[in-house]
Specification:
10 helices; alpha+beta; 40% helix; 280 residues; five-stranded antiparallel beta sheet
Length: 280
């Protein structure tokens, strides 16, 4: 008579399986990855072992989901400190200098801003999240200006009266920009332009250095970008630069087409900055 004994996998074997099922831990909440690391190093307390087994069961059953950051619905974080709203990267927090109460309050403010942007009928993204004018915008705000201010992110201007609206340019495989693409408006005419971006620079350097532009002066406090301006100040800036509803609609069409093309584009390989620029 013989008996067969089935040995349960060790903590290390379970840790390996958790990592395999979570893209090397990238899909885990940072505290859960720390729990796995503690299991591998045999540093778990009795309570830690219980928590680890619960994590193992949820991951291997396919039921794992990142817990909400500070208990705030729809907000999560990654291992680099970036904070996400419904899976879209929005902010970066320095968690090491935040108390539990500060983290909760800051996360709640982030969620409130994101919910307001959604209530405006706009997608939440890091490009426009920081612009204060969106938080002042009423829900019945004219649609064309609503979309323009959302898509623009950071407007620029030139001494000769040109208004500059950045677009999405080509990037290398490592994410660094190859070109700065933008729309210029002067005397009712819209012109699309692009400039090469030197390795290690970003679009701001090309626009302010090569093109002689500056961040839009909407009346915000000195040493602040236009995102710190009020909604009334931004609307006044648009009026001063001749951005009528018709021109705003044309700009929105350009910007939407640009984003659609950028989403479909393949990043430029490193060293290929001299390739032809992408045109909408």
């Amino acid at each position: 008579m013989s008996t067969t004994t089935t040995n349960a996998p060790s903590l290390i074997e379970q840790s390996i399986e958790i990592l395999d099922r979570s893209r090397d831990g990238n899909d885990l909440e940072p505290s859960h990855l720390s729990l796995v690391q503690a299991a591998v190093n045999n540093h778990l307390t009795a309570r830690g072992v219980e928590a680890f087994h619960q994590l193992y069961d949820t991951v291997t059953s396919g039921q794992y989901a990142k817990p909400w950051l500070a208990g705030v619905e729809h907000v999560t974080r990654d291992h680099q400190g970036y904070v996400y709203w419904k899976g879209s990267r929005i902010e970066h927090f320095t968690f090491s200098v935040m108390t539990e109460n500060q983290l909760r309050a800051t996360t709640q403010r982030l969620a409130e801003r994101c919910r307001h942007i959604e209530a405006l009928g706009l997608p939440v993204c890091g490009r426009s999240y920081f612009n204060d004018w969106l938080q002042e915008m009423p829900l019945d705000f004219p649609q064309v200006y609503k979309e323009l201010l959302h898509l623009t992110g950071t407007p620029y201007e030139h001494d000769d009266g040109r208004a500059i609206f950045p677009m999405q340019g080509l990037t290398r495989e490592d994410g660094w920009p190859v070109e700065a693409r933008f729309l210029e408006v002067k005397d009712g005419a819209i012109t699309e332009q692009s400039l090469p971006v030197r390795l290690g620079d970003v679009e701001y350097h090309a626009l302010t250095g090569q093109h002689g532009c500056r961040l839009a002066r909407c009346g915000q406090a000195e040493h602040n970008g236009p995102g710190a301006a009020s909604l009334d100040q931004v609307l006044d800036w648009l009026r001063r630069h001749g951005i009528t509803q018709l021109i705003a609609q044309q700009l929105v069409e350009y910007l939407k087409a640009n984003l659609k093309a950028a989403d479909a584009a393949v990043p430029t390989p490193c060293g290929a900055a001299d390739q032809p620029t992408m045109r909408v």
